[in-house]
Amino acid sequence: MKSSDPKRGMKGTLSRPRAYAQTVLDLVPGPLLIDAGPRTDFFVDPVDGKVVANAPARMARVEGDFVLSALVEVAFKATFDAGALIVWADDRRWAKLAFELSPQHERMVVSVVTCGRSDDCNSTVVDAGTVWLRIARMGEAYAFHASRDAERWDLVRHFHLAGAVEIGFAAQSPTGDGCEATFSDIRLEQRTLLDIRDRS
After folding, report:
1. pLDDT digits (tens, 9 = 90+) for 69-121
2. For the chain, which terminal residue's Cβ has fewer other Cβ atoms within 10 angstroms, N or C?
3. Quick one: pLDDT band at residue 180, thresholds 50, 70, 90?
4. Is position 162 within any domain?
């Protein structure tokens, strides 16, 4: 799905094109294809607070602790093209874990946590065409993980985000003319991840 009226560089409330699922289970097991249009992103610039919030997303509300994972593939064309797992509390509190193309044209795991303004953290280079991404909630804490085989999970981020959330998937093409992201083998488990650092 594509944004029909992109809003770029706006200040204030985020306006995000997205589709709701009745439950997260409606997204399982996939595959789910999201088609991002030109100059689409979710990002609040940490320097000047400029907001870009026009990336297409598919989300649903979830209750309690959970573990959500998917195999992500992106038809990369331009810098910062990405497919992402996203957790959304409100317009100024959200986070995404992305499979993204870097300015050096490397495929990377990248994460952004937004509390008023966004940060931006590059993690590992991915030497394959796909990568597993995972979000786990433990109370008001979240863990982002990435994996090459869905067996050994490497910790990417650990952060706090209070309140009710929606979770799901997004695609972006901030500098390009659009890209497609495919999310397959989507898995949702209503459980608490007991150890975020044991790679399981």
Report:
1. 999 999 999 999 999 999 999 888 999 999 999 999 999 999 999 999 999 99
2. C
3. very high
4. yes
What does the alpha-carbon distance between residue 161 and residue 97 come to, in Å, rounded to a whole number?
A: 14
Burial class (CB in 10 A: 0-12, 13-18, 19+), 13: exposed
According to DSSP, the residues that pair with 117 across neighbouring strands are: 115
Quick one: 167 exposed, middle or buried, by C-beta within 10 A (0-12, 13-18, 19+)?
A: buried
**Consecutive H or E run containing 119:** none
CA dist 173 and 154 (Å) reads: 26
Using alpha carbons, select from 21, 27, 90 the residue that is nearest to residue 53: 90
Residues 6+ apart with CB under 8 A from 31: 182, 183, 184, 186
What is the extent of the structural domain holding 46?
A: 18-189
Can you read off the two tokens belonging to residue 168?
A: 């799901």
pLDDT at position 89: 93
